[in-house]
Amino acid sequence: xxxxxxxxxxxxxxxxxxxxxxxxxxxxxxxxxxxxxxxxxxxxxxxxxxxxxxxxxxxxxxxxxxxxxxxxxxxxxxxxxxxxxxxxxxxxxxxxxxxxxxxxxxxxxxxxxxxxxxxxxxxxxxxxxxxxxxxxxxxxxxxxxxxxxxxxxxxxxxxxxxxxxxxxxxxxxxxxxxxxxxxxxxxxxxxxxxxxxxxxxxxxxxxxxxxxxxxxxxxxxxxxxxxxxxxxxxxxxxxxxxxxxxxxxxxxxxxxxxxxxxxxxxxxxxxxxxxxxxxxxxxxxxxxxxxxxxxxxxxxxxxxxxxxxxxxxxxxxxxxxxxxxxxxxxxxxxxxxxxxxxxxxxxxxxxxxxxxxxxxxxxxxxxxxxxxxxxxxxxxxxxxxxxxxxxxxxxxxxxxxxxxxxxxxxxxxxxxxxxxxxxxxxxxxxxxxxxxxxxxxxxxxxxxxxxxxxxxxxxxxxxxxxxxxxxxxxxxxxxxxxxxxxxxxxxxxx
Length: 494
Ligand code: NAD
Hints:
By secondary structure, this protein is of the alpha/beta class. The chain contains 15 helices and 21 strands. It is globular and about 70 Å long.
């Protein structure tokens, strides 16, 4: 990828989009559309269908019919694998076009997006394609006069609701294992970032996915998302997004068919710096990257910096220096380290958190404001706030923006207590040269993932999921497959 290739795509006209139902592009049943605003400059990029509940019901009916007639669920595994591998290849072949389209839609800096979006999505789909013919049923250790077989069956129709921060990557985390196991899917992209994910659905059909197996409906969560959640014909709901929506999905399930609901929610992840960290300069740079990349719109972002009191001032100074060295700007420029905030609403919410932090005694050391307003887009300076108390809003509530709250601690016991003092439990980090302390912290901090002497790295071979109000179930790795299968026992008298 070089800048001239990006520049060739950055102003391309974006065609209007319909839903994808039964393999065809269709408008909303009432003809309604919604504007897609680019966070880069506030311009209207295009329009997409703004779905109705009837549109969602049509998509679910298509998915159900495709599942029941076995056009995908009954296909030999080797044939399903071939389609999914071709899909991954097509995503790779169109990676730059997909990445630029996605960045124009959601504002993530292109350097991150090219790897995290098409690159990661293709890798995820390939991973589950390669896994699908290596998953066996079981024979139970019964007495000799019976045979207990345990079949692993697809669940049926999966509803997948996706957020805006990494639509292709998170979409693939759901679509890869769901389709690999033979399910049919109804996808609901986020209002403010649907374009690249919808293109990815086109490519699935180009790769030979039969019509009806993967349907996608755009529109408002409260309308089409609700219709998906309340459907009597959806067997499993998988979701990444906010805790508030996650609660609603559990209610929808209870009010309808008690479908299984898997939630990947937010976090308030602690990044814990001990004075004996192997390289404090490196720790400061990684801590800044761990909260400010993609403008903090990363579920595992290390948004709480817990620093041992003896190094607090020096370490904060190093983080501020690292933050100020990260250029904020047009996310399609390869030199940009921090792109645009996804929407004006999100930017206003971020700034509101800064004001609340100040009113609760926090001190803004850098940032705290909207910048680059002349471009017309939604940009915020990376923000570091010190003096954040354990009960402050900035400790307890997820911002999902480029805002880092700093709290100091005196010893390991206090660090653990602070780390665990929120309702969340998605991710965390610990920086220390003491191997025993590193292992103790990995065990004692209640999260789904702990980083040691790094922050934010992972790949598709390891699960991602939270504890507490960060959610349930896991994306990624072979563990994710459990969400998309039912176990069925055959008990046979011999
Ligand atoms: P959101 O909950 O507002 O929206 C997520 C999706 O839910 C969108 O597609 C939206 O249309 C849909 N939705 C909204 N209301 C709905 C309703 N009433 N019924 C059904 N669907 C509805 O979240 P967001 O703002 O798009 O995403 C940001 C959140 O996602 C943050 O909290 C972040 O931490 C979280 N996140 C978590 C992970 C993870 O893996 N745990 C990863 C990325 C983001």
